[in-house]
Design a protein that fits this description.
The complex is a heterodimer of chains A (335) and B (429). Helices cover 66% and strands 2% of the residues of chain A. Chain A has 335 residues and is an all-alpha fold. Chain B contains 18 helices and no strands. In chain B, 44% of the residues are buried. The chains are: A mainly alpha (335), B mainly alpha (429).
Amino acid sequence: MDQFIFFLNKVMVPGLVTGSVYALGAIGVTLIFGILRFAHFAHGDMMTMGSYFAWVMATALAAMGIVLPIPLGFVVLPVSMALTAVVALGLDWAFYAPLRRRGAKPVTLLIASIGVTLMIQGLVRLIFGSSTRDFFVGNEEKVIYRIDLSALGGTRPLVISQPQIMMWIVTAIVVLALHYFLTRSRLGKGMRAMADNPDLAQVSGINTQLVVVVTWIIAGALACLAGTMLALDVNLRPDLAFNIILPIFAAAIVGGLGNTYGAIAGGMLIGFAEALAVFNWTAVLRPFETYLPNGWTFPNTLSLVPPEYKLTVAFVILVITLLNRPTGIFKGAST
Amino acid sequence: MSATRRTILTYVGLFVFIFLVGLWQGPQNITLLLAQSIAYALIALGLNIQFGYGGLFNFGVMGFLMVAGASTVFVSFPVNHDFWGSDGPLLLGRALIAFLAGALLVWGARQSDKLGVKGAWKSTLVVACWFIAYVLYRSQLDPAAQYIEAKSGWIGGLGLSPVLGWVVGAAVVAVIAWIIGKITLGLRTDYLAIATIGISEILRNFVKNMDWLTRGTLTVSPVPWATPLPQDLQAQGVSIDNSFLYARLGFIALTLVFLVIAFFLVSRAYAGPWGRMMRAIRDNYIAAGSMGKNVTRRQLEIFVLGSVLMGLGGGMLVTLSQIFDPSSYQPINHTFLIWVMVIVGGVGNNWGTVLGVLLIYIIWIVSDPIAQLMFLNLSHWTEQIGWGAIPEIDSRSLQMRVFVLGVVITIALRYFPRGFLPEVVRRDK
């Protein structure tokens, strides 16, 4: 039983956490790709920026002496999400829209988004410095639940923190809301139509300008959400999301660029694959040692990939997917 | 002729600019900057071949530079007798045998269809063989790595000439580029960009964590120099200030030979039939393919050639700075910076590329002291009005150049998409 709890603590919980963050990021990437047809590299830094917005507001609330049962970072989320969405619209207006109007190639837009990445990164570090920040300021503390599983025969608790639980709830709500938006509302259907065939969507009377605006709003808000939740789970650093933008892209591509549901699946797949790859199997296999021939033991660390190579997992999956199924596991949008 | 005049005028302006910066920063600093620029120029020429001539989106420059740097260190660093006297070479030899055996196994599994193993069976067999090969290799390499790290730290170098190191670095990079190209060049442009970014991160991960081979985060220094060091010159009685200047000028003279040769060859290739074919493939690979050109092979060719230049430059950078620190390699400094140089200078134009290198590198270096100056003034002002001084000015102003780089690239893409010196396409009347 202890082995099972160890597995839950080391694989299921972190896998679900990173999976949710990747999924939320990948939804944004995949939506932008589906509608605007370019790989938006600055998405990771929109996440960082969004979480800094949330951090500033949470710190301000904490300074006013407000204490609530849930982390302040979650309380300010709607405002910071709206703010990030506005900034995303501004970025599009200033940097991407002029290039699109000129009819630039998608790769030019990709390079422009790298430029935007550098600008946001530089600005965040200029303003906030490059030190690590904690979301839990003042007398606020991260609540960690240690669920006692002795009833099931375990001796160790299942460890889950409050932000992690809230992250799962919020992710589930957002995914459901997005699903209903895309399948039931007129605008959402328009978005899917435009992802399928932009010209046909335009001639059939869909307001493509509006669709673009809505895309940026959703992508910006989700980026802020994902970034803030990641920052709540670990802590806030200027390179918070730049380090995970590549797994996010891997998730979006594995799920099929342009496919929202694929992005969610891809995010979860990569999150769990990373957790599984660095998992130390010896801890689980220890009870079976008695069945081994006499004198044989399991080595102390028996993980598929050494922990320092965790990053490579996402890319190996990405490369294999690109080689065997270039459009992703599910069918992606074609360009 | 207007293109030539434009080139000459721009270069005159650039030299005046360099001269002014040199007056401000002093001759020692500007020679260091020029020496670094020559290495970056080689790298940028490599990228210009790949992107400007061949239209390939290689965002993995950083990985190539790291591999080249590690190879240069391996060739040029003094011999580590502790390692060669221990069982380390033997263990590494066994790991190599395990690697080859694994490779053979996978190759065999891929050929299994000739024995009648088809479809899902073959896929399963290939995956199983990959797994076995991986376990086999890890089972030999892990103890070897642990043993070497415990006994002798790392394997050290060969103690040969740094110039040979650059060449070997270029060769190693060429092999890696060939493998990467084989895997990724069939991909669509934006997929290729993301795949190369990912591969360079993987390469970085390996160089950083293979402590037994590269010493990882412990860093290697001092890496031997290719030309007499300032200390050597001082021993001969040159004053301290001049010794730095002369040492750097010596380094510049050596690397300039490489740059001039590479530039000449690359420009000749551009004008020749080979260059025309490459541009044809870049502009319309379907048409080029239907004219009988082997598009994939040619793209692989240009990918490897460009990577060779990157390898040369990457080796030079390590020798010049005398320290190999895997953590100092960042996509911003070593991939995106090069891209900005090529795009701002002029994609497909070699003179433009070199211009872009000098211009962007100077802006990149100079924006740090300028930002520091601005911050100090601002801090002074906030202190006066009672808000207190700005903390961490040093680490913050270093970030200014990242922001400036972003601004430069977005402005360049929007207003000068073809760069300062655009590609000159000669057409017959």
